[in-house]
């Protein structure tokens, strides 16, 4: 499986893969870098720009890794959403 | 007191009319069905719930408590607002699972994840708890708005609570979630603009960033410019240990559901997104925007610290003045016209939170109590009507809470804390471990109520235990609740496999779901083999 550009199918996208693990590690790092970077920039410190650049880079990497998978997952769920919705309403009204 | 000129009143009047009219414009969409009234028909592109996440969590009380943190700990105080980073992992884990469950609320999710009586008890418990909490949040931010209006005009606190709550109610009752979320977009933009402007004006008033630095150095507080200044490894009010605990509670908590108090309002926004992908990016970007907002806010606040470095926070009246520092900067440094825009932006900040909480409280009542237990055969028109009535009742309830909030604040902060600490671990495990059952989860919630009272208040008051800092409280409560949660879970039977397979089929949870996944795959093969 390629890290970026994997041709996801609905079935393969529904599985937890190392792509999910990697974005789950990168994403908090992006948040910490954004918080510290933006406060440093606001206080006029140059290192803030490096941190913000790192946060931006991490954000783009996260997007490149996971967005195609999210699209495939959305497609997979859309196919079965109406059936689940009907079942949800049946349960809501004690008929399911 | 601020002397408003006609131009300032124009901004306030024009903005109020714009907000109400824009919200009312979505009346016809809101009344189509309960799904529209509460989750905008599950049809929103990611940027709408994203802006709403940010706008709803930018409340009138936020700059008050954040100002208190920055005054005390310097810009390192931004980390106390870092709990929002739960969405960093949630966006790619629990958000997707929750969106696919299709549950309108966290309460309904319980009845899908768990079966039978236990699931229903959990649903009823969460619904009641959230109706109460949303009234409390409304009362809390309403009184914060009252304090701001008092600062600006000398009005009694109840004016801010009641009058501006009613303004928000007009379009929330008429257009439901549609009205709230569309208003959130413009309110979020207006709020962001004013946060930047106050920081620029505040820094200018203190002589620029260089001036802030010089003033803080003169008062021996230059350390307040360091976002990583801590009071020690474990000791003091803001230790490395507390910082690490905040990061861990927030970030790892994102795997679970309900592990942050923000979860409940975000759950509604997750369901309003039109796809799983939209829900994920909405949570991720909305939370990131909050993180950026906090950092920009910090500049105006540290400018206030530099200008007025000697407030004694141990003195309640001085602490009260210091906590309103961000508002002081805006009211006292903006020129004519801009000061009116500032108050209009405060209204935007207030109304976005008020409308969101009213609609959410009404959702729990309408979906989880009225429709599920009282009138399962209700029509869509009836559900929308009940949604509107309960929106008004939630607001009225908040007036009561707001009027007594001075006496119950400490208890209610405690109530919010126990939602996070004692059930943090079960909130995560119920998402990633198939074996968690309703009884283990429910008993832990109940035990958590008692254990929290003992550890936080009763035993320290009796001298049996010392008064622990929040960082230690968290770990103690988590460990004690695990001692209840794990034995009860393992000594009671798992949820019926049929229920778990149905849940898996819809939500596709991740983690330790092997036995359920294998059963689901077996049933899939059987269904495909059937002629």
Describe the structure.
The complex is a heterodimer of chains A (96) and B (531). Chain A has one domain. Chain A has 96 residues and is mainly α. Chain A has three helices and no strands. Chain B has 531 residues and is mostly helical. Chain B has a single domain (6-27, 46-420), classed as Sodium/glucose cotransporter (Up-down Bundle). In chain B, 76% of the residues lie in helices and 0% in strands. Chain B has 23 helices and no strands. Chain B has helices at residues 6-24, 27-30, 34-39, 47-56, 62-73, 86-90, 94-101, 106-113, 116-153, 157-205, 208-218, 240-253, 263-272, 276-307, 316-323, 325-333, 338-374, 380-420, 424-432, 438-462, 470-491, 497-507, 514-529. At the A-B interface, helix 2 and helix 3 of A face helix 7, helix 8, helix 14, helix 17 and helix 22 of B.
- The total domain count of chain A is 1
CATH top level of chain B is: Mainly Alpha
Number of helices of chain B: 23
Give the SSE order of chain A as H and E letters: HHH
Main sheet summary of chain A: none
Number of strands of chain A: 0
How confident is the prediction overall: mean pLDDT of chain B? 93
Give the arrangement of secondary structure elements.
The complex is a heterodimer of chains A (96) and B (531).
Chain A: H1 10-13, H2 18-42, H3 47-92
Chain B: H1 6-24, H2 27-30, H3 34-39, H4 47-56, H5 62-73, H6 86-90, H7 94-101, H8 106-113, H9 116-153, H10 157-205, H11 208-218, H12 240-253, H13 263-272, H14 276-307, H15 316-323, H16 325-333, H17 338-374, H18 380-420, H19 424-432, H20 438-462, H21 470-491, H22 497-507, H23 514-529
Helix pairs in contact in B: 1-10, 1-17, 4-10, 4-13, 4-14, 5-14, 7-14, 8-9, 9-10, 9-17, 9-18, 9-20, 10-11, 10-14, 10-16, 10-17, 10-18, 11-14, 12-21, 13-14, 14-16, 17-18, 20-21, 22-23
């Amino acid at each position: 499986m390629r890290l970026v550009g994997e041709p996801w199918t609905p079935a393969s996208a529904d599985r937890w893969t190392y792509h999910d693990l990697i974005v789950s590690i990168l994403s908090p790092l992006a948040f910490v870098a954004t918080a510290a970077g933006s406060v440093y920039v606001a206080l006029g410190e140059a290192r803030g720009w490096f941190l913000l650049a790192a946060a931006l880079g991490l954000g783009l990497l996260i997007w490149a890794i996971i967005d195609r998978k999210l699209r495939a997952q959305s497609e997979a769920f859309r196919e079965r959403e109406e059936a689940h919705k009907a079942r949800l309403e049946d349960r809501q009204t004690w008929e399911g | 007191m601020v002397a408003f000129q006609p131009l300032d009143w124009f901004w306030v009047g024009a903005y109020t009319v714009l907000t109400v009219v824009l919200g009312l414009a979505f009346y016809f969409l809101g009344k189509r069905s309960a799904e529209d009234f509460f989750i905008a028909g599950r049809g929103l592109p990611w940027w709408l719930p994203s802006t709403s996440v940010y706008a709803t969590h930018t409340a009138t009380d936020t700059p008050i408590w954040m100002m208190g943190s920055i005054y005390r700990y310097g810009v390192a105080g931004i980390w106390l607002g870092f709990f929002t980073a739960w969405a960093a992992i949630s966006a790619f884990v629990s958000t997707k699972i929750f969106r696919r469950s299709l549950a309108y609320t966290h309460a309904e999710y319980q009845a899908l994840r768990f079966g039978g009586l236990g699931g229903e008890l959990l649903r009823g418990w969460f619904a009641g708890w959230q109706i109460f909490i949303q009234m409390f949040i409304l009362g809390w931010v309403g009184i914060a708005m009252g304090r701001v209006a008092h600062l600006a005009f000398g009005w009694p606190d109840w004016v801010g609570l009641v009058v501006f709550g009613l303004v928000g109610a007009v379009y929330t009752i008429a257009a439901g979630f549609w009205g709230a979320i569309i208003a959130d977009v413009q309110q979020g933009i207006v709020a962001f603009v004013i946060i930047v402007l106050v920081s620029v004006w505040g820094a200018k008033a203190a002589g620029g960033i260089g001036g802030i630095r010089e003033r803080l150095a003169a008062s021996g507080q230059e350390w307040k410019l360091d976002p990583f200044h801590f009071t020690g490894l474990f000791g003091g009010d803001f230790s490395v240990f507390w910082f690490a605990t905040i990061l861990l509670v927030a970030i790892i908590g994102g795997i679970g559901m309900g592990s942050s108090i923000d979860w409940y309002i975000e759950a509604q926004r997750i369901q309003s997104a039109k796809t799983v992908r939209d829900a994920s990016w909405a949570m991720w970007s909305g939370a990131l925007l909050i993180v950026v907002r906090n950092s920009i806010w910090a500049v105006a606040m540290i400018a206030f610290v530099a200008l007025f470095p000697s407030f004694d926070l141990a003195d309640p009246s001085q602490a009260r003045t210091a906590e309103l520092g961000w508002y002081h900067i805006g009211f006292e440094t903006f020129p004519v016209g801009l000061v009116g825009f500032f108050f209009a932006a405060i209204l935007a900040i207030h109304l976005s939170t008020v409308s969101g909480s009213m609609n959410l409280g009404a959702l729990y009542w309408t979906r989880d109590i009225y429709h599920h237990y009282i009138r399962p055969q209700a029509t869509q028109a009836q559900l929308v009507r009940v949604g509107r009535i309960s929106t008004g009742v939630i607001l009225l309830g908040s007036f009561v809470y707001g009027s007594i909030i001075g006496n119950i604040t400490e208890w209610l902060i405690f109530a919010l804390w126990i939602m996070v600490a004692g059930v943090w671990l079960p909130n995560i495990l119920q998402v990633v471990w198939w074996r968690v059952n309703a009884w283990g989860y429910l008993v832990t919630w109940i035990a958590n109520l008692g254990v929290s009272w003992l550890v936080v208040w009763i035993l320290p008051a009796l001298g049996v235990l010392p008064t622990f800092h929040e960082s230690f409280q968290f770990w103690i409560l988590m460990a004690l609740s695990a001692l209840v949660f794990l034995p009860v879970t393992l000594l009671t039977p798992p949820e019926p496999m049929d229920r778990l397979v149905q849940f898996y089929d819809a939500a596709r949870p991740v983690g330790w779901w092997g036995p359920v996944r294998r059963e689901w795959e077996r049933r899939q093969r059987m269904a495909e083999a059937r002629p």
